[in-house]
Amino acid sequence: MLVLSRFLFATVFCVTLVSCATSPTGRSQLVLFPSGQMSQMGVAAFADMKEKGKVAKAMGTSQYVSCVAAAVTAELPSSYQKEWEVVVFSDKSANAFALPGGKIGVHTGLLDVAVNQNQLASVIGHEVGHVLSQHGNERMSIQFASDTGQQLLGALIENGQQKADLMAALGLGGKYLVQLPYSRTHESEADLLGLDLMAKAGFNPEASVEVWQNMSKGSKGEPLEMMSTHPSNKTRINNLSNNMPRATEVYNAAQQQGKRPRCVRN
After folding, report:
1. Is 127 labeled as catalytic in the residue annotation?
2. Residues 244, 205: contact at Cβ < 8 Å?
3. Cβ-based neighbours of 108, under 8 Å, separated by 6 or more
4. Is 2 exposed, middle or buried (0-12, 13-18, 19+ CB in 10 A)?
5. What pTM did the predictor assign?
6. Contact, 99 vs 131, CB < 8 A?
7. Please, what is the angle between helix 117-132 and helix 180-200, to 10°?
8. Domain range for residue 202?
9. Does the pLDDT of residue 143 top 90, yes or no?
10. Distance CA 125, CA 263 (A)
């Protein structure tokens, strides 16, 4: 009982000290884990994915994706300026992800939906926006503070099955029903951050709407938004469109500064 009391006291003390954080958009966050620890977990998860997944061999495709990613990540704050590792995975799903520790993964299926450099920049900017906003940390912190916090602690030490919880908290799969509203908030926040990043890099922000229009055409019906961890395509398009005037100003300024990416898929 004494050990449990000490644990609870330490937990409350930790939450009091480090839970107060603010996202790049000014939203209050619950963030409990050190950024260094998140980076270590991101690096480990990415290594695991490279080992178990199928890395695309087409050099031209990898160079194209890396070109877009390099231009986007160059616009990140100085604390995130690093050589980001970019890997293209042979996978038919239209998906991409970014992890703490400077890791970006893109599925080949995404290139059938994001059909040019501007559309691809929109998706990569969105995924990097998750890292910039510490969404993985926030997901884990929320889970830690919930009634399944003990299970997540097991994941942190890679205790068997609990490793799946860690991957889910980093955004690589799984559903936590308690987090549905937060996940939709994360997605909308990442959309706007990605819009800003791509515009700063000199990619046409209007492509962010185009790629979701492509997604809508390729989808076979969407789940109700209230039952999904993601906003509907219509909601995303509306949010992006509402923020397009400012993004266009940023884009025009970047163009005047000579930021004109020329990433070509061979």
Report:
1. yes
2. yes
3. 56, 61, 88, 89, 90, 91, 92
4. exposed
5. 0.80
6. yes
7. 130
8. 17-256
9. no
10. 15
Q: Is 21 within a domain?
A: yes
Top-ranked range on mean pLDDT: pick from 173-177, 217-221, 258-262: 258-262
Of the given ranges (74-88, 151-165, 207-221), which has the lowest mean pLDDT?
151-165
* Count: domains in the chain: 1
Q: Is 266 part of any domain?
A: no
CA distances to 24, 75, 112, 156 from 231, in Å: 20, 26, 22, 29
In a domain, 108, yes or no: yes
**155-169 per-position pLDDT tens digit:** 554 555 555 655 665
CA geometry: angle at 251 spanning 248 and 256, to 5°? 125
Which residues does 15 contact at the CB level (< 8 Å), separation at least 6? 30, 32, 145
Q: Is the dihedral of CA 181, 119, 66, 63 positive or negative?
A: positive
Say which of 75, 83, 85, 127 is annotated catalytic. 127
Percent with pLDDT over 70 in the chain: 73
Is 164 strand, coil or helix?
helix
Domain-located, residue 5? no
Residue carrying structure tokens 């890292």: 131
